[in-house]
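Here we describe the complex-level prediction in full. Unlike the single-chain runs in Section 2.1, the two entities below were treated as one system.
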Amino acid sequence: MAVETLRLFGLGARMNAIRILRTREQAIVATLTDFIWHSGALLAPVLVAVRFGHIGPWPAVAVVFMLAYGAAVSSLMDALGDSPWRLSYYIGRGQLDHFLVQPQPLWRTLLTDGFTPFDFWPVLTMGIVLMAWSAGQLHVAASPAWLGLLALNLVASIVVQTAFLYAWGCIAFWAPRGAEAISSAASRLVGDLSFPLDPVPRALRVVLVTFVPSGLLSWLPARALLRVAGGGGLDVWLTPVAAVVLGAIALTLFRLGLRRDRRTGSWRYVEHGHRR
Amino acid sequence: MQLVRAHLATARIAAFGPLSDGLWAVFPIALRFVRVLILLSIWPTLIPAGSVVSGYGLGAVLTYSLVAEAFSAQLDVRTPIGVALWNGAIATRFTWPMPLATQYAAEMAGEWALPLLLVSAPLLLLAPLLGVDPRPASAAALGLFMVSLGLAMAIGIAIDMACVVLIVRIDLGPTVLDAARNVVQAICSGAWIPLALLPFHLGAVFQWLPFASAASAPLRIYTGTGDPLPLIALQVAWAAVLIAGVRVAWDRTRERVALYGG
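The structure predicted for the assembly as a whole is:
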């Protein structure tokens, strides 16, 4: 099982390398696109922080750490595959059926589909370098324990984002036409909100670490790791706990959706389906 | 007359299409409330009440952010034409008895209906509850804002068509172009952050670009933070240059359109 999964990951990596290295222009465009793709969300908060010297209790350098953490999460997310971003399209357009007829478990198809590790290394590198630089500027003691917590929170943030996108994407099981693009809308929402959330009213902050957990993708973990004013001692464990809870919710929704899909089938292939 | 009816029908279909499965389509639209609430919460920590930073008091910048979100689709015009060109869906559109640009513009305008109804109107109505004064700087500012918004949309459509020309001529994927446009929109247009509040005097440069004419200009007129006449004059100039340039470019490009997929 693990061998076959690794083989598919290897296949994805090989195809990714072939596509990028096909021509020099292709390699340059792929690298630049990755930078451009992620820098939009990064630049606006940085420019505001530089202009005013801070955002709430966050000094500009801490904002850079937070955004670099977010860039590392999103580049790792992108490298790991397409399914979280495209789930509602797969379901809405009937493409899930293409996965179901493959001679392998659905989870493996979803896990390995679109694995592109070489597309996103530039932003991942940038994220790691900026995190190291800003942590140095803030005199953070980077002990092995701190680095372990950083790694744990990075993984937890990835799980949170995957679970969030899957949970929203599952709506397409019940509304294949209306919610076909909901994965894009959901990803835009968590991607657009890269500001420190300390000044946000408490009720909205609760929403932003639960139902729309963009706060768990960079703000809360960064605040806990940097010990920015306003955080608690246990905050560093909140994102991992949330990852477990949100992962369970997403899995339940996906299984319920699949159960419905077994009864109704895809609308794409019915006589008057919206894609015919 | 028939042409007008055809465009209205296209807009109507685009407006009601997302509702064919019920109200599910409302959720992603409603999520926009969250984004504007965050921005409205952050500004008071940066600009204390009573102080003015680069011509913006707290009230002005809050109104600016609220109106920018209410009209976000109109200030960042994206027709479906680029994606349709890339995936081949545009092939059948060439057979429609309507100009290509206007049929996609009609479709886009139809798609605006639901967000305007569900987000923009409630945002403006509920603004006082959020601590924002949604009123324009004056009655004249409102009138000039409408003129400026129309010009901004025209410039936006011209920029969108220019991107389509680029997609065809240099075989560039719309996702790549969209990524670049997102960066431009976030930084250079003033749709998120007023240009005057950018560091290093970047705003002084960006305000002359067409992206600012497509977003920042109407917002500055609405909030009374810019002189309307020079702003509108610049918009007229950009609209004339871009529309003429894009028409010529598209006429020279349309024969190069190669399609696959669909």
